[in-house]
Amino acid sequence: MECNATREGANLFIAVDGRVDGTNASEFQEALEGVIEESDRLVVLDLGALSYVSSAGLRVVLLVAKELQRQSAKLAVCSLSDTVKEVFTISGFDKIIPVHGTRQEALEAS
Amino acid sequence: MAEKYKILVVDDEADVEPLVLQRMRRQIRDGRYEFVFARNGVEALKALSDDQDIDMVVSDINMPLMDGLTLLEQIPKVDPNIRSVIISAYGDMKNIRTAMNRGAFDFVTKPLDFEDLQLTIDRTLDNMEAWKEALSSRDMLVSIQKELDVASSMQQSILPTQFPQTEQYETFGSMEPARNVGGDFFDVVRLGNGLVGLAAADVSDKGVPAALFMMSSRTLLKGTALGLGQPGAVLKEVNDLLGQDNATAMFVTLVYAVYDPVTGNFTYANGGHNPPLLVHSDGGSEYLATTGGIALGVAPGMSYDERTVTLAPGDAVIMYTDGVTEAMNAADELFGEARLQEVFRQSPPRDPQSAARAVFEAVHAFAGGIKQSDDITCLVLRRKG
Fold it and tell me: Per residue in B213-239, pLDDT tens?
């Protein structure tokens, strides 16, 4: 799993690569928390290169969403593969975390 | 269990003592349990401070002088390692919830079913042993593996070991734990009126905190299931209870169903979990449409829809966790939903045990030598016919 962040003003894009499961969920959490700053207003996880996410990975996404909510910022995800989209749909996470087709759509929706 | 456990039973009804001694005589003769008795909370506290050997308390709620809920608050002051089980009126959610908040491990309902009481006592004692182990190793340098071992025995202690079956239906469930990761559990509960409640669930994390979350999920589910009945209402209640002050952001995906053996109606609500598979006696099958619910503990205040399907004689419902459908082979492919249907196409389920076994075998065969990365759970209900 690898995270690469690019910041455009108050918008932070984080591209997640590989797979996130119980064995590396805490690394995933550290990576996200390490790169998010208090001045960020919108954080978009670009999951286009994420091949698999388990419920332990979803929990990290939820934790980050809650932290961002405390600083009045938003979290969204974009570019999900079919497998990852299915995980978001089945778990119902797509009801509380906005899912977008592309980074651009995530920006426009915010 | 090789050790002998001393259990304090607290009840103001005079016939409880002879009844327990009579119905539990085999366990007493085998040297597994020793029972002592008290008539109210005051007597119970005195017994606990006089006798350091008492391992667990089984207590009624309504008693003179000091009731069971007050007793629960006092017990940890005498000995924090003592585990308590509450005897409650059937469906008395308010008291059950208060008891859980005050640290009761589990509950049984009146009138006492002694088979259930014995299973509950065994489960409580297993859990206590796991917990003691966790405490005793706390001061040492605890390896992650050690913590996972403790969590794993806590997980095992809440799984049912007996499965309801009648002339009309049969059930069976099994869980194969992954070595490191996993948080599956399942439950089968007799609800009264001949109804049976079934649940398959997956907690989002590993380790001792996740095991504790799993235990409270399971107990809240059981309590709510007995109290409320309807799956949609049950999930809503459990979600609200789990979602309060949930700073850890742990959650549980869970499908809960109530089966009515008389009509064959299977009513389920799905909280973010994999859809159960309905398999017909000719081997054809379909997934039960999701009801749109979100995983439990994520966001309080959500509502959960429910749906009913009617099982024909010979139909079976397979409830499972993502350890089945997301098992991976050497080519990084997932087992998937289609392969699960394929398991039964040529050989429809004859009985729940063999159906569950067929699922496990198919998953293992698919994975080849690839180590299982998640718990694999399969719970089967079959309408006889």
Answer: 888 888 888 878 876 679 999 999 899
Question: How many separate domains does chain B show?
Answer: 2
Give phi and psi for B178, each to the nearest 5.
-75, 160
| Domain with A25 in it | 2-109
CA distance B135 to B58: 23
Interface of A with B (CB under 8 A): 21-23, 25, 51-52, 54-56, 58-59, 62-63, 66, 83, 90-93, 95-96
**pLDDT tens string B80-93:** 888 999 998 776 77
Compute the distance between CA of residue B353 and CA of residue B367 in angstroms, rounded to an integer.
Answer: 21
Distance from CA of B294 to the nearest CA of A (A): 4
CB contact under 8 A, A22 and B206: yes
Q: How far is B154 from chain A (nearest CA, A)?
A: 18
Test A25 with B205 for CB contact under 8 angstroms: yes
The answer to whether residue B154 sits within a structural domain is no
Burial bucket for residue B90 (CB in 10 Å: 0-12, 13-18, 19+):
exposed
| CATH classification of the domain holding A44 | 3.30.750.24
